[in-house]
């Protein structure tokens, strides 16, 4: 394996070990979160309350060793509460800019779908362009600005669906489910002891593995991961097939193609390879494409899910040898 890839994988292994000090189990979730960070994109984390969505993001920020802010989304939250606003200073007869919590490197948008669309859209420009506009003035954010947004399932009371344009900005949707029986027993034991997950994080036991300076170097290492032309065409064909499926009202756009290609390279390194295989693409197809698709109402009524439709697409497209 390429020496640079070996170094990158070693960094990822250390990061996973540090996260495991706080988060019990959830290996797939942790891998997907690391993929999001190392591609320089954003992620949506969905799960019922109490499965450690917020704790995971706080732990990731600690492992990254970067500036961290949190926004608790509520129905009465306004866009100015996120980006900031100019406040009149009576003493100096001037307007002073009070920056909002979006001016950070790592942002946790907690329970993002509890706020209406107008407030959710305040993140759009920041996520895509890493800059915000306040009173006609454009302000630049950190080049490593990353958003992890948690949300409750849409059937929960007091939730608003995210606009399609907003969902497309997220590299993937990470589904965080209940822990396995053994993992929940371990959690219960730790809760009664001195090393509960929240206490472990608060005690400083989690050490930073990546820093803003080294993050760009690690990301550059993925340029050395081989992705054959046939696999590139395979990804393009799967995404394009979603736009012609009878079950899908709105298919995935070109941004989904880019996301699946970038994510598959990082996944290959996590699996100890310096080349992408069809399995890397298949494993990530549902997290990357699922939240971007809108099914036709008649298929939703029949109980079909986005995951089932994506699996059908994967079966329809010939896998490169």
Q: What would the keywords be for this entry?
A:
321 residues; alpha/beta; Rossmann fold; Helicase, Ruva Protein, domain 3; five-stranded parallel beta sheet
Task: Please describe what this structure looks like.
- There is one protein chain.
- The protein has 15 helices and eleven strands.
- The chain has a five-stranded parallel beta sheet with strand order 2-5-8-1-9. A two-stranded antiparallel ribbon has the order 3-4. Strands 6-7 form a two-stranded antiparallel ribbon.
- The model has no long low-confidence stretch (mean pLDDT about 85).
- Helix 11 packs across helix 12 (about 255-270) and helix 13 packs antiparallel against helix 15.
- The chain has two domains: about 5-225, 3-Layer(aba) Sandwich (Rossmann fold); about 225-320, Orthogonal Bundle (Helicase, Ruva Protein, domain 3), CATH 1.10.8.80.
- With about 325 residues, the chain is α/β, with parallel strands linked by helices.
Topology:
Elements: H1 3-20, H2 27-38, E1 43-46, H3 53-64, E2 68-72, H4 79-83, E3 84-89, E4 94-99, E5 106-110, H5 117-120, H6 124-129, E6 131-134, E7 137-140, E8 146-151, H7 164-168, E9 172-175, H8 181-192, H9 197-202, H10 212-221, H11 229-242, E10 248-250, H12 254-270, H13 278-289, E11 294-295, H14 297-301, H15 306-316
Parallel strand pairs: 1-8, 1-9, 2-5, 5-8
Antiparallel strand pairs: 3-4, 6-7, 10-11
Give the neighbour order of strands across the main sheet. 2-5-8-1-9
Mean pLDDT across all amino acids: 87
Order of helices and strands: HHEHEHEEEHHEEEHEHHHHEHHEHH
User: What percent of residues adopt helix (DSSP H or I)?
Assistant: 40-55%
What radius of gyration results from the CA coordinates? 20 Å
Beta-strand segment tally = 11
Strand content: 15-25%
Q: First CA to last CA: what distance?
A: 21 Å
Kindly provide the name of the CATH class of the largest domain: Alpha Beta
Can you identify the CATH superfamily of the largest domain? Answer: P-loop containing nucleotide triphosphate hydrolases
Q: Which structural class should the secondary elements be placed in?
A: alpha/beta
